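Run log, item B.
One chain of 371 residues. Sequence copied directly from the ordering sheet:
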Amino acid sequence: MDFNLKKLTSDAGVFFTRAVQFTEEKLGSAEKTELDAHLENLIARADCTKNWTEKIFRQTEVLLQPNPSARIEEFFYEKLDKKIPSRTTNGELLGQYMLDAAKDFGPGTPYGSTLITVGEYQRRLGGAEREFLQTSAINFLTPLRNFLEGDWRTISKERRLLENRRLDLDICKARVKKAKQAEAKAAAEQELRVAQTEFDRQAEVTRLLLEGISSTHVNHLRCLHEFVEAQATYYAQCHQYMQELQKELSRYPNSFASNVNPSTSASCPSPISSATLPGVSPPGLASTSTPGSAREPSGPLKIQDVQPPSTGHRKAKVLYDYDAHDTSELSLLADELITVYTVPGMDPDWLVGERGNQKGKVPVTYLELLS
């Protein structure tokens, strides 16, 4: 008990002496031993590495998991060394809702069948997202976390020891200056030599640890490449799935137009009608075809033999990609501009489109008329 009390008293005395030395240095009334320039540069570089690593780590967490509650839950699982439970992604959940809705609406209806198709692709997108999150957490977040919670804590501990050794060294230097008697001065000089040795030893330990920051940068660079690779793979999968989904939906170009309720036109973009073109009669007068027969124009009309009218030409912007089903049709690419017009006897759901020397039928639901 006496030993512990003496140690506590001694530690308190050392702490108080260091606090006095630190305060006097801040006030400019005491000299301070400066670290060599190389060590100062290493410390500045380490602080910069820690600060930016921490910011990148936190923002990557937000990117991968925007929900703060979920991040807190994952944090506690990690601290308890428990496996984080598998969580359904938003894409997978949306896809499942669409599939369930299709069962109620009827999978045989246009809306129900489309919900099934879109729902399946949403689930694929969700699966790709899950794989991306897992890969990024392992290959990028974990190494950053290991540095902040492992290497950096060790570096911080040794830097605190170095600061204490520096304070002890400066305290001994002050005692040597204040010593008047030869015996007291000799004792102070002996303490100074011991303090200098301990300071030099701790400075070397700290320097070696700080020089290891270069290896940390190399490791983080490799992890960054892996993170970018995971992102590229994820976005490529999403792009592929969406292209496949668009092709699936483009097989029925009139399924939307033929099932639109006029009362919903305020919230949904209305399909373009050829009745808006100059010189074109309304659908009811120009043709007796039904919405389901829009795949073929009425009458044996050969597009390649059609002569363009002198008036009625308009520019149109293509809204979606469209693959021609036969030689009478013209394939379209989203965002391109083409010239369109109509001819007598043509189905109102179709127009004649021209792109340079190419000519063919195009569905009006894929176009936005510009002039």
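Observations after the first pass:
- Residues 110-178 form the longest helix (69 residues).
- The beta strands are 314-318, 337-341, 350-355, 358-363, 367-369.
Flagged for discussion on Thursday.
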